[in-house]
Amino acid sequence: MRHAVCQFHRRIGLKARTHHTIPVISAKSIARIEKLDLPKSLLDTIKKEARVRHRKEALTVRYQLHDVSADFIFPDRWHREYADALADSVRRGGKHRAFLCYEPADDIELLGFFDIFILASYDFSSYKSKAEQSERTFSYIELDAGRIELLQKRLEVLSGVYAARDLVNTPSNDKYPEKFVQMLQSHEWTRTKLTILDRDELERQGFGLLLAVAAGSSKSPYVAIMERMIDPTLPTIAIAGKGVTFDTGGVQIKPEDMEDMKMDMGGAAAAIGAMMGLDALETLPWNVIVAVGLAENMPDGNAYRPNDIYRSYTGKTVEIDHTDAEGRLVLADVVGYLEANCAPKSIVSIATLTGACMRALGYEYAGIFGNDERIIQAMIDLSDETMEAYCRLPFDHRVLRACKGENADLRSLNRKYLTGPSIGAAFIASFVERARFTHMDIAGPAFRPEARGIFPKEGTGFGALSLYELLRRWV
């Protein structure tokens, strides 16, 4: 899995064969912009716009001369559109991009610009036979050794987001569960212990629901566990990621939109991306464990069927209502394993779980559910900082009760309730007895039909950055 790459400079000039994104925060930028040898009419426009206050919308002033282009971005009053305007400019640049920051900035503002530049300049060209090497240059007038170190450390975190995006965009013939595991094993983990549970071990330990989902595929399922155990006496937070590497819907096959189902492991990708960022930190004040369940959901003579009943890792039995509600089964066994073996204080599950959540919230928001008020509020509060937005959806005794079964302890789906995303979250929560629980449904923002802001078309890595920030700060 690749790392994001960037060059750092104090250079303030324009470079040949390069597109430049230049934020103009205030008139302080003008003295340096004047040195760029721009046409007088353009310079007059930039000076005029730099004096404007209370602009309702972010403004982009564009310049092009031969193979050199530059966008001068002026903020809106509340900076609500500024990040998107900067990101859209970065993306416009093609393979050679530069970000020129002409005004002094504190570390938080500098990192915000850097996040936008790196995340918006992502591309996926691994399968192109003649892919052109991209070049990124981040220039800042007050760049010094300390700030370069700050930005290089941040690049490690953003590389985790790149990895999450690459995993989602990789075609399913190259990331079925065994290959997915091989990609994890090939990564250079520095401080993280990686453990793999294969089919034999899953059968021995009783991962009945995960094995049921995988029964129709010729590809064996796995569970991958990544641990940062700082001290057994410290509290532990655990993350469970859904890793269905391709989802046909099983014997109740999807009627449409199956061409996007390489993305159904977006939750696992986000959790792994967050853990890659944490791996770069020397220490943490708590323990972090990430576990992802990996399987394909395919139809054949061995596939699981509606009304089948299976025993879960926890011992609870589940009647299958629909074979395309497979992600909650995978996560049920994973959260059951985490609680039984890791004694976490909190468990968070993340998944591209329900199309209903995407229809309710679109591509801009993920649904968040649960009883862990601190984590839920923290994720909502992080929305502006990480640009990954969360919206709380219903979760209470009503949806928990709706998961009760007639012929088994639980039913995987209750079609009488139209609150599908809440039912999915409640089903997973039914396998958590002691820990606080949060669920994030990222079905919409994990895979976009078109680019917007820092998010590219298709795999976005949504959740990786906010999970990283949560795990870094969790109390």
Write the layout of secondary structure elements.
Elements: E1 7-9, E2 18-23, H1 30-33, H2 40-50, E3 59-65, E4 68-74, H3 82-91, E5 96-101, H4 107-120, E6 135-140, H5 145-169, H6 177-186, E7 193-197, H7 199-205, H8 208-214, E8 222-228, E9 236-247, H9 266-279, E10 287-297, E11 309-311, E12 317-319, H10 327-342, E13 346-351, H11 355-361, E14 365-370, H12 373-381, H13 383-386, E15 389-392, H14 397-401, E16 410-411, H15 420-429, E17 436-441, E18 447-448, E19 458-459, H16 464-473
Parallel strand pairs: 1-6, 2-4, 2-5, 5-6, 9-10, 9-13, 12-16, 13-17, 14-15
Antiparallel strand pairs: 3-4, 7-8, 8-10, 11-12, 14-17, 18-19
Helix pairs in contact: 3-4, 4-5, 5-9, 8-10, 9-16, 10-15
Query: Strand order across the biggest sheet?
Result: 7-8-10-9-13-17-14-15
Low-confidence stretches: none
How much helix, percentage-wise, in residues? 25-40%
Kindly report the CATH topology of the largest domain.
Aminopeptidase
Give the number of DSSP strands: 19
- The CATH class name of the largest domain reads Alpha Beta
Supply the number of structural domains: 2
Query: Quick one: CATH superfamily of the largest domain?
Result: Zn peptidases
Under the CATH scheme, the architecture of the largest domain is 3-Layer(aba) Sandwich
Mean pLDDT: 95
Distance between the termini: 30 Å
**What does the radius of gyration come to?**
24 Å
